[in-house]
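job 3f2a | input accepted
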Amino acid sequence: MRIVIIEDEPLTAEDLAETLQQVDSAIEIEAVLASVKSAVAYFQVNEFPDLIFSDIQLGDGLSFEIFKAVPTSTPVVFCTAYDAYALDAFKANGIDYVLKPFSSASINETLQKYKKLQQNLSKPEPSIKNILDLFENRLSQKRSSILVYQRDKIIPLPVAEIAISYVENQLTRVVCFDGKSYVVNHTLDELESMLAPQFFRANRQYLVNHKAVKEASQYFGRKLHVALTIPFQDEVIVSKAKSPKFLDWLANQ
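job 3f2a | predicted structure (253 res):
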């Protein structure tokens, strides 16, 4: 079975590739693509594989845009941390998904579904356009608050008060403009999907509010160093791959 992985986080892509080959040693990973642009370029000159595993939100856009640019009937499995609304959208359109963080069991289940799909050639092809439309509508909806935890209290916190969110000791925290910090019961991936486009995922550890960015400066290896409007103990660095997208977001948000 020939598989292409579309994922902008190298460690996640490596983990997925290893898991796939552990589940089925006959699997051949033909390519690992890290952006919408590189994936479109690849599929314009290469044959589509038997199956595609793809993240949803890449550094330069939604992965659905790839399949609008280069239409295919190849089954696509989306690796996602999105909420139940989004998962219902997948089910309604016949596209499978695996939740992050994935496991050998979830990957194996997905591969079994793919094999059954191949045996049922009369099954309607999934509509990538419908999925893209649903996600664009979802992303355009602004969430006004999230729930945070402080000792035994559960507090609705206005999104506008959040300056930055980050991961520390496997807990996701948010820091407000007034300096207060809270634990939230969401992964950073989930917060990214809930709070976009006002917030930008600088890297695996930080999600930054546009209003919290004081300035950005050139850093080693064509990365960007982000200075915040609030005191913060860590350096926020945007990777080389995400820097163009970050600057576009900074200018246009």
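job 3f2a | The chain has two domains: 2-140, 145-252.
job 3f2a | closed
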